[in-house]
């Protein structure tokens, strides 16, 4: 059997200024091609965990423990080596597309620079590949979109551009931190569909953070539940949804059911979650 693509052992993250521990002693693995979802209430340490893997927490935030990506201990890499891994081997899809793109430059410039940094493609090759990837995430008029600035596009469009970029970069791991939270319901479904298609096409693994268990149910093979910086439960999605052991997980699952029933009722009986 192939080794895990990501192995996190005894990750501890703390705020140097206050001494507050943000993640206590977190260990988990992601198998190649599988999706591990981290769920939990706001402030439980999900984003800090993702940023620790990417080594992107703010400078006052310290971390210890061992993070291995494809067998390589990321903590030992120089910042330059880490930059080569980010994007090409690990792609991050963030909650707000706006924060992922430079607001002062058209989207196409960002896309071209990212691709040129990792591949030696010519300008015309980049345009052709970007056009085809953007069409496959159902973005209309891709060339027009490449000329737009981030503020001229909707949140759902920016998320799909990030997914298109991941399609072109073909990373081994995608870290998606609440990629659907800021979107309206229709865009949420479109983005989840595209993330599922992306996994199918490039076979990448995924670390998927969300507090929306409906979305998690569509994507996750395995789930970690975090609370106050600690992993309080873990297991396969199937087992966790039907047979949660921890009271907190049961609360999450039943809150999801109530929301889901309410949603079905207000939609006049149409169950979008099962589309
Ligand atoms: N730059 C920072 N400086 C100090 N504390 C921070 C910083 N970033 C996050 N924290 C703290 O770390 C804890 C975990 O935050 P984190 O953003 O990981 O939570 P989360 O589970 O992702 O929540 P959400 O679902 O709201 O995004 C919180 O108590 C937060 O206040």
UniProtKB/TrEMBL annotation:
Keywords: ATP-binding, Cell membrane, Membrane, Nucleotide-binding, Transport. It is found in: Cell membrane. SUPFAM superfamilies: P-loop containing nucleoside triphosphate hydrolases. CDD domains: ABC_NikE_OppD_transporters (cd03257). Residues 6-253 form the ABC transporter domain. One of its GO terms (molecular function) is ATP hydrolysis activity. It is a peripheral membrane protein. The keyword Lipoprotein does not apply. InterPro entries: AAA+_ATPase (IPR003593), ABC_Ni/Peptide_Import (IPR050388), ABC_transporter-like_ATP-bd (IPR003439), ABC_transporter-like_CS (IPR017871), P-loop_NTPase (IPR027417). The keyword Membrane applies. SMART domains: AAA. Belongs to the ABC transporter superfamily. NCBIfam families: opine_ATP_CntD (NF047578), opine_ATP_CntF (NF047576). This is ABC transporter ATP-binding protein. It comes from Paenibacillus faecis.
